[in-house]
Sequence to fold (321 residues):
Amino acid sequence: MNDSNVFFKLFTNCIFVEGEDKGVILDYQRQAIYEVDKNLSEILPFIEEYPLDELRTHSAELYKVIMDLETKELGFLTSTPELFPAISDEWDVPNYVNNAIIEYGLNSTYSLSGLLAQIRNLNCTNLVLIINGLTDDQSLKIFSQIKQLEFYNVDVWFYSEPPWRSLKKMIGQLNVINSIKIFNSKTRQKVYKNTSLKYFEYKSPRELCEKELCPIVLNYTFYCESLRFNNCLNRKIAINSFGEIKNCLYLEESFGNLSDNFIVDVIEKEDFKKMWYLTKDSVDTCKLCEYRYACLDCRAFTENPTNKYSKPLNCKKNDSI
Fold:
């Protein structure tokens, strides 16, 4: 193959993201991240535009780096680069609400069955249910309704010792339960192998969210969403145990109560949807970070709560960038 007609291209599943002090290549197929030093980061976006012989003439070191990228199977050589267009980075879903977080306990006065039906009517398929102090029979009734409404992905969190009888019974029937998180549990039991079960020493889900580091998510759909939307709050709705309707359980602002509002009316409010569009590219520090499209954002716990663009509280990225 004649180098004058050969070009290097990153594989379409490998996305380069430039940061202030370095860059990264996000490999979505292998679920891996490769760091790229600052000098290469500045020219990597342009190397696909020039044939190998020009690049080698310009810099033998650069040519060596390209060959190293090929060896690591992050890219390939081709004489027909036009046949390998970039894959689309558009993001959309047919759901008015894509994720719902519901907190429900003994002191809750709203109708959980009515709320679940409202959310499912909006084509929401992903549900996090946080349960506080319910009995076996109460929990069993809730799990039965979730099964009837056909939610696709369900995560269940318990503030304390869960109702094991109903939980184990419904896990066997409700195949959509992805994970269970338990706080303050005195006993540790096993459930079904296909369900993730985690115990936490934290006293509450709030403490978990407040103290845990922002997780890294290597998923191309997540990347596409992060380009244009807030990757935590977009198409999300949260209802606390008192029926307050929010973007997130732990954000202060409420957009009404279930006692006098329908979910469909709340999500049409521009004030409610404005947080959907607060991307990592507008968040302090994050906007200069090479991990910004792979890092889950948090607006509830930030370094400066009065600044909606403040970096997440538990972000360890150097503030100097």
Remarks:
- The first strand starts at residue 7 and ends at 10.
